[in-house]
Amino acid sequence: MKSYVLTVTCQSTRGIVAAISGFLADKGCYIIDSSQFDDLETGLFFMRITFTSQEGATIEDITTGFEPVKKRFDMTCEFHDSDHKMKVLLMVSRFGHCLNDLLYRWKIGALPIEIVGVVSNHFDYQKVVVNHDIPFHHVAVTKANKPQAEARLMEIVETSGAELIVLARYMQVLSDEICQKMSGRIINIHHSFLPSFKGANPYKQAFERGVKLIGATAHYVTADLDEGPIIEQDVARITHAQSASDYVSIGRDVESQVLARAIHAHIHHRVFLDGHRTVVFPASPGSYASERMG
Amino acid sequence: MKSYVLTVTCQSTRGIVAAISGFLADKGCYIIDSSQFDDLETGLFFMRITFTSQEGATIEDITTGFEPVKKRFDMTCEFHDSDHKMKVLLMVSRFGHCLNDLLYRWKIGALPIEIVGVVSNHFDYQKVVVNHDIPFHHVAVTKANKPQAEARLMEIVETSGAELIVLARYMQVLSDEICQKMSGRIINIHHSFLPSFKGANPYKQAFERGVKLIGATAHYVTADLDEGPIIEQDVARITHAQSASDYVSIGRDVESQVLARAIHAHIHHRVFLDGHRTVVFPASPGSYASERMG
Amino acid sequence: MKSYVLTVTCQSTRGIVAAISGFLADKGCYIIDSSQFDDLETGLFFMRITFTSQEGATIEDITTGFEPVKKRFDMTCEFHDSDHKMKVLLMVSRFGHCLNDLLYRWKIGALPIEIVGVVSNHFDYQKVVVNHDIPFHHVAVTKANKPQAEARLMEIVETSGAELIVLARYMQVLSDEICQKMSGRIINIHHSFLPSFKGANPYKQAFERGVKLIGATAHYVTADLDEGPIIEQDVARITHAQSASDYVSIGRDVESQVLARAIHAHIHHRVFLDGHRTVVFPASPGSYASERMG
Amino acid sequence: MKSYVLTVTCQSTRGIVAAISGFLADKGCYIIDSSQFDDLETGLFFMRITFTSQEGATIEDITTGFEPVKKRFDMTCEFHDSDHKMKVLLMVSRFGHCLNDLLYRWKIGALPIEIVGVVSNHFDYQKVVVNHDIPFHHVAVTKANKPQAEARLMEIVETSGAELIVLARYMQVLSDEICQKMSGRIINIHHSFLPSFKGANPYKQAFERGVKLIGATAHYVTADLDEGPIIEQDVARITHAQSASDYVSIGRDVESQVLARAIHAHIHHRVFLDGHRTVVFPASPGSYASERMG
What we know:
The structure is a homotetramer. By secondary structure, chain A is α/β, with parallel strands linked by helices. Chain A has 8 helices and 13 strands. In chain A, the strands form 3 sheets. Chain A has a 7-stranded mixed β-sheet, sandwiched between helices. A 4-stranded antiparallel β-sheet of chain A has the order 2-3-1-4. In chain A, helix 1 runs antiparallel to helix 2 and helix 3 runs parallel beside helix 8 (244-267). Chains A, B, C, D: Its EC number is 3.5.1.10. Chains A, B, C, D: Catalyzes the hydrolysis of 10-formyltetrahydrofolate (formyl-FH4) to formate and tetrahydrofolate (FH4).
């Protein structure tokens, strides 16, 4: 049976859950899993519901029928087909661990996405990507050609229909224009526990400050470098006996996992913007399951 | 404004959420926070809702009014006053770290319970307990007097109105009879990552097996020793350079926290039995907050 | 048999370990546990050795006999009696969780220190402290009386012979003068994962930035606020559903443990300054062990 | 300059460190990094030293010259060339995440080993392996052909010169004979926190018991299934909302990392057997560092 995800954001008030769940019950829909959050500080209400349609109502019926509820509470809401694989464009420079990790998760079905292409300013991963039957685009970026390079990038985004851009250790800063155009649709992995150690060489900064844990942060990209809303973070313990170059090695696993979890949350419509903060609902039961590679 | 917690367990079917939330909306109730879980394997549905009554409906109105919904879905359900402080009886033998930890959390309001007494088979903590203005009961347990000791314990439970017994490193095994009578109302902390290292001297067992992490487990007590439903677990890393007696020291923090979290979950009606497993919903926003001691 | 700790810092060169261990062997000393670190970047060598004297050599013999080795490598070195309990002065304002935690660890012997007094700018913990038979000093601090207050503090430090000051959530900033005079002998617990969220209200800052983990940092106090060398850090996971005041509750356990671990490291002479960074050697086997309270 | 690793095990007594470090100093060797452990319970002493030869002494000189020290303390000891890449044979069945992870770490130089072949009882990963220019051996195993299959395996081990066999989710049980012949040279990853959930389907067992953390264990293989000495373990938190098949997904990252860390420890001669337990010394500074793939 087909399942759908409904995401709702609106001003918090009495009766929202009753209206939504009452509507779904009337339409013969079965709620598999539901998460909600009432932000008492901002007055915003967030909800994510996974449901199946059991009595034959089509998604069009449901969407149309929901209009009065939507209007009554002035909702921002969307119905998503759970089977839809979001189109994702990966970008990478010279560090390939996140790319390798994402390709593997994609290949075994653990990350149900469609990778519509990989863009890189280097050629290091061309062979790997092409051998996965994924289009590889080399887009060199220099100070001189930056506008043209970005135009090329946007062309690839449009042609491929990419819904999400993932900066999997892509080391070029995107222009404000792209950040705005793709707002909420670009995820970056930064190799520090933000807001500490923004900018270049965060592991070196961490080493110099003498912290006892290093971290990684996945966040939406905004025009403010390393300041976008945080989706996921994690850390690893280090000691005095490790150097900044050891951090690079130790950090790989943390970066890969933090990025993968952030993408997982985004593609399943589990992330909501709440001002500059994010609401991230837990994964639906079963959504971690994956087929075996072979 | 007064707030309440509604807990519901029933067979999973369509329309439950709509019925509950519709009812609450009709009664002028505002849902602050809601968690649900649909166990596809057992077919059971679990829900916990925190709400306030905004239009003057009393808890009696609400409880009575809910009867038809309850019947329709054949629910096991309860309404709890969020301000009610559960009456808790602590039991301890010679290791006092969990007791000290719980007394502190209680004193600063982080664990909103009423400690109706402390029972011990030793006198070590009499002074500490009495100085907190909590009744201390010394109940010696020997092979010979076990039935009388247990009768004494049950008398204390009944007189004090204890709703929950917490075995905070109480080293005597309770009889099957008490386990059954107080089923789901006794929480024990075991100093291993169950199901490994049941029974006596788990740290010694852990040392001998050469594990690289030690743990603690908070569980409901059943007649089967160390086999009851698990509420919470955690671990700490150890190395070859630590001995079993070091584990005792390292384990104290883990035990204290695991037990405190399990009690927090229980007293806020966040724990549901699902066969031999537990469903533990997250804490309601704000429920961690506590006043400052002084 | 008595045991001693030898700590050594010097320029790294060939033959240091041979010289030290050869000397100890000649003196009939048995090495129980030894840690060393060669900082290839700064060229500094750090070593910590725990040993027992088995052939009757006194610590005076050993210290005197070691002079040639010390001179040959231009060492900064010290011999410490393992049984010596470092004299510690605790300072606290209105949050008492670290104080409670330290008092408990001290009481059961898990932190082998001598608490020579507790200084507070409030009266909240006077009773608790006095009931532990520890001198309590109320030293009010206002803008007007700051110099006098600090003079009073230094008087207490001198009279009590305090070797270490622990700021266990003491919310007044110490003067540069005291920081310098007591350099490397004041440990503070800051309730953030430094260098993020320095200064006031770190949990509020963390909430506003939307991080997914909160942390605590124990560091030596320097004239630069929250910039001193870090001894220990740890973090706890939080979600969108927790408020800044929930962080206060969740953070208590992290703060208490991070501070206790840092003090444990310091009093056992496991912490070395390496520029602005610290070398922290692991605890000696058995040093975690503690007697049972009673 | 070439660096070497010396590993020593012997009965604990006075003067061992002095003898070893004195010898190395005499030979013009510089100690980069040294770890030792004195097991007070078993009376065994363990040491691992990384050093460079600075005055021209060859490894043969050093080894020969060390004979008297070795004899004096009746040591089990070995000198290893740090540049030597241990020859490793990987074995895999149908779950490829550990294989993928190890191949990646190997490719970028993070695991300095020589993969001399991959053996599988399936064909799933033939293409992946062959594209890495690594010999792939399909060795089918049935009840009937088990002896022949094992003979084939041992033939591959001998021909390839494999020093270590890694069971990277290889689901066939090896015979006692092979376990004994390759004692201390076969590492397995088991997908549970041993000693809990030995044998088949550990994630299902974990689900049924209702634990709150799942784990993975890397251990040396012995004739006793899942009872060999543990090298490394780690865990991941799960909730009631995840099914056993979700555990499979969540567990992949834990398994991959635990296995990689265990192999890292083994190939750098950091693991010592201490009865049925292991001593695992920390990684030498810099040993995590790796080149970039390209």
